[in-house]
Amino acid sequence: MNRFEYERAGTLAEAIGAEGAFLAGGTNLLDLMKIGVQAPARLVDISRLPLTEIEPVEGGLRIGAMVRNSTLARDPQVLAKYPALAEALLSGASAQLRNAASTGGNVMQATRCSYYQDPLSPCNRRNPGSGCGALGGETRNHAVLGWTEGCIATHPSDMCVALAAYDAVVEISGPEGARSVAMAEFHPLPDAQGAGDAPLAAGEIITHIRLPDPGAMARHARYVKLRERTSFAFAIVSAAAALAVEDGRITQARLALGGVAARPWRCRTAEAALLGQPATIETFTRAAELALEGASPSGANEAKIRLARKIAIRALERAAAGTPERLPALPASLFAGDDNG
Amino acid sequence: MADMMTAGGHVRLGSNAGQGLTRRDGVLKVTGGAGYAADCRPEGLLHAVTASAGIARGRVTHLDVAAAEAHPGVVKVYTHANALPLALSPDNKIHPFVWRMDALQSDEVRYAGQPIALVVAHSLEAATEGARLLAPQYDAQPARVTLDDAEPYETDTTAFGRPSGHSSGDIEAARAAADSHLTTTVETPSQYHNPLEPHAITAQWHGDQLEIDTPNQAIGLAKQTIAAFLGIDPSQILLRSPFLGGGFGAKAIVFGAQFLTILAARDLGQPVKMVLRRDQMYGPVGHRAPTRQTLQLDLDAEGHILALEHDTITTTSTFDQFLESASNASHSVYATSALRTEHHARRADIGTPGPMRAPGEASGSAALEIAMDVAAEARGMDPLAFRRLNYAKIDPSTGLAFSSKALEECYAKAAEAFGWEGRPLAPRQMREGRLLKGWGMGTAQFPCPMFQAAAHATLRADGSAVIETSAADMGQGAWTALAQIAADGLGIDVDKVEFRSGRSDLPDAGVAGGSGHTATAGNALFNAGADAVRQMVDLATNDPASPLFGAGNLGVTARGGRLHRNDDDRSESYEDILARAGLELLRGEGKASREGTPERAMFSHGGVFAEVLVDPDLGQIRVSRLIGAFAAGRIINPRLARSQLLGGMIWGIGFALHEEALHDARTGRFVNNDFAGYHVPVNADVPMIEAMTVHEDDPFVNALGIKGVGEIGVTGTVGAIANAVWHATGIRPARFPIHPESLI
Ligand SMILES: Cc1cc2nc3c(=O)[nH]c(=O)nc-3n(C[C@H](O)[C@H](O)[C@H](O)COP(=O)(O)OP(=O)(O)OC[C@H]3O[C@@H](n4cnc5c(N)ncnc54)[C@H](O)[C@@H]3O)c2cc1C
Ligand code: SF4
């Protein structure tokens, strides 16, 4: 690990514009520093900033960037209105990591592309212009949507997939002032040369995540995650879905996919196609086709396209069936015991 | 169990052995009191970190030694240019547990992750950064890391000098007589041991005396290895290894990376510690090599196996040899009139493989059990009925009778506990909600080797005892189970036994490997205790002042710290006997080994039954139930034995569904050399598991009738899970781990 300076930001004002890498829970940043992928000259510790509230606000909920993943997942307001967010959070990492991981850090966590994590490999994301080491390599975890030859990485977060489905907005403060960006558009898609622009300008910090009220979708929302083992594994593919159904017809629909692109993939065409339709497997299957329209393998990962379609259907089916009173003991799992169809 | 006799006429176990005692070191472990090698902090300690090769084949052309040495805290950098010499050629094999002592001998790189420099510094951080600053440059050649890229070569041995092929019976004739011929191909990936505790070593020299703290599974052999390559006498070395945080075979060998630390400590005149990072454990410290196995079973019309052929292709490094002897797993499990097994070796740009929990048997059993299921399916038979039909009454590879074999009892017990009866023959018949459900089974088998061990047992004037042998507790419970055996040898309660172990200045306890440690070290300890008792019997029965006077050797029983006459109810305590003889201490010595050519085939056995649930759309698999019954001779400590068996079965879940180390085929570097990428089962992957034992007396395997339980749980389990996956989905897994996408 390189030598670095450490400073603790006492106030948000001190953090904004600080030169260096923000240290929140450290569960991602420190790992990357240890393997030499990131070597910041200075760490700005934001873990004591008072961004730890989960407050109801006009038309929704506002979550501080330093709210820990485990706190957020157990929050009664989240469990009541945004159960797919709780389920997504609880399906991620391990209890120990969730206790440390912050909301802002989760959004900003780096891709798990193993070539990004290997300083000896070329990587446009880590070292712009060096090429993409993953192309032609081990690409089982890589993108099938929105990728270019510049970068085929996926964003690994579960939380962000649910947030994208809920129309969450990322609140950012920087030296130039405050701004907001939709979660679904926050992470840039790659361009022909590489990973695309950084989501945050120098000195900018995520302060909050704002969630609009889900209205009638509150109790028809689920997150489903396919993974290599039953727990403690990143998604191969995942999906968040929320529906409102009146008189057998879908009146509101949200669908976002995880593990398929450099951002949580909001499926707006599929959502539009769901509206006014009966909540049936046929409807969901058509929507899933639309969700994966334009998908193509970035390597030996064609199977992911099929899997993503299936996980979208499963999430919609579970959402239509309604969110259970209590989240299953294995959140987001295919073995949660609630697919009795 | 009936009393048994040895030469000393004193073998009777029961008061301590057979009890499910909790670990004697348990409190130390959970309170942090158990010191591991990485915890050592001697005065003046320096830290060493290796720089790992970033290519798989080629030469190092430049290392920025100046930059590393300029880093604050760095003391010295060792590279091939200033490597410290060994006393022997690095390829010298002074015993079978010596791997090439790769210690910076040249600028040549032969696998990714090879240590190419050692940086010693005042802090771990400085050494780590120093190693990074070396920024090696290479003249690289294309990597050959997969089975297909690797270069075939001829060899007639696999591992530890065992032959690479076997043939018995007339396979061509048997084939010609057969009714059906079933071929199965199965691939297994490369796997890494990943003990939670990494390889760690602290070396300090006091003049020409060397003290080493390092976790090791074969303390006596390690001492020999280190002495030989240093050119010093083994008596100059003290190696301490009281606790291992897992080993699984990776700690049975002293590797070059560890050896560099010893050399640096001597050169610098200060203690040096090295702890490998997780990623550095991928390459220099062994692994299980990938295999491609092809089995052919030739059956008669009733389903009897007439011929069995098992071929394995596997890789080793370009500079040493250890082959995953998978085909050998077919030697002794099922009856066949003709048997042929072969291994075909290939050289790849990888670190040298090594023994990893159930080496050969794990991979081979996985493939064999799939092949058996394929055959059962072809014959339209229940998989268990098919295995019973082909039950080996003698070992088909040697023609020898089994020393004991309660496999049928295992089948019956596990099948009943599982509820196997009524299993539909065809696949895709059972559901749980939407999930597909399948049942599969496999036979577990593992050999019962004995190594060589020696032990001391010393009775003290107060009736307590000290027992000594340099055993290795890898977490399996040697501190406890061996003490139980020794206490029985001494005829005292285990609480009165002080156990000195895990140090090279004690009598050698052999290798904690091959599932033979309890049997080997246990028999030595028992014999040492019996020797002490025998001496005491002599004292007492020849002393007119003793109530035992005249009872003779066979007329006395040692129990509860007293000698009891067998002809009446008089007895005398050890304290009194020793006091009258004026002895503070009475020392017994014992040894154990298996002499000569065995006249029986010796194996532990088991039957493992698995239930899996598979998502029909997404292919994710969960082992919802796993039940095994095992016959493993005398069980010294049922609690610890069960833990070992469960651990083996869980290892089998990992083998079947998770474990796989991936290289980038172009660079040869790993893409998943950490716990986030290299998966092993987590608790949620093991919702229901049970391991049972069935009673087994084995008068041949060794005097105490002890087999082994450390590895057998892996065998049988992997195949059982794969077969359950087939039963759930109708898809026959052709490679491990079984990925979701292969099922949809
Ligand atoms: C073994 C393992 C398994 C995991 N499995 C999963 C999984 O299954 N699903 C999943 O979703 N995640 C998983 N994770 C990732 C985990 O969720 C993230 O590491 C965590 O959310 C990061 O949060 P943190 O607070 O620790 O971030 P840090 O490590 O502190 O920071 C991460 C990055 O975010 C930046 N940052 C942090 N806060 C802010 C802010 N407020 N504004 C601007 N930038 C900021 C930091 O500068 C840094 O670049 C796993 C991690 C590990 C180590
Ligand atoms: S996929 Fe993106 S992150 Fe991965 S190596 Fe290529 S450029 Fe880097």
Characterization of the model:
- Chain A: Pfam families: CO_deh_flav_C, FAD_binding_5.
- Chain A: GO terms for molecular function: FAD binding; oxidoreductase activity.
- Chain A: InterPro entries: CO_DH_flav_C (IPR005107), CO_DH_flav_C_dom_sf (IPR036683), Diverse_Substr_Oxidored (IPR051312), FAD-bd_PCMH (IPR016166), FAD-bd_PCMH-like_sf (IPR036318), FAD-bd_PCMH_sub1 (IPR016167), FAD-bd_PCMH_sub2 (IPR016169), Mopterin_DH_FAD-bd (IPR002346).
- The complex is a heterodimer of chains A (341) and B (744).
- Chain A is of the alpha+beta class.
- Among the domains of chain A are: 5-45; 216-340, 2-Layer Sandwich (Enolase-like, domain 1).
- Chain A has helices spanning 12-15, 29-34, 69-74, 76-81, 83-90, 95-100, 103-108, 159-165, 183-186, 268-274, 281-291, 303-321; strands at 5-8, 21-23, 42-45, 54-57, 60-64, 169-174, 177-182, 205-212, 221-226, 237-246, 249-258, 265-266.
- A 5-stranded antiparallel beta sheet of chain A has the order 4-5-8-6-7. Chain A has a 4-stranded antiparallel beta sheet with strand order 9-10-11-12, with helices on both faces.
- In chain A, a hairpin with a 2-residue loop joins β4 and β5.
- In chain A, α5 (83-90) packs antiparallel against α8, α10 (268-274) packs antiparallel against α11 and α11 (281-291) crosses α12.
- Chain A is globular.
- The termini of chain A are far apart.
- By secondary structure, chain B is α+β, with helices and mostly antiparallel strands.
- Chain B has 3 domains: 2-34 and 450-592, Aldehyde oxidase/xanthine dehydrogenase, molybdopterin binding domain (Aldehyde Oxidoreductase, domain 4), CATH 3.30.365.10; 37-141 and 199-275, Aldehyde Oxidoreductase, domain 3 (Alpha-Beta Complex); 291-449 and 598-743, Aldehyde oxidase/xanthine dehydrogenase, molybdopterin binding domain (Aldehyde Oxidoreductase, domain 4), CATH 3.30.365.
- In chain B, the strands form 6 sheets. In chain B, strands 3-5-1-13-10-11-12 form a 7-stranded mixed beta sheet, with helices on both faces. In chain B, strands 7, 8, 9, 14, 15 and 16 form a 6-stranded mixed beta sheet that branches.
- In chain B, a hairpin with a 2-residue loop joins β10 and β11 (209-213).
- The longest helix of chain B is centred in the last third of the chain and has 25 residues, at 517-541.
- The two termini of chain B are 52 Å apart.
- Residues 1-11 of chain B have low confidence and may be disordered.
- At the A-B interface, α12 of A face α3 of B.
- The complex binds flavin-adenine dinucleotide and iron/sulfur cluster.
- The site of flavin-adenine dinucleotide has 32 residues of chain A, from β2, α2, α6, α7 and β8.
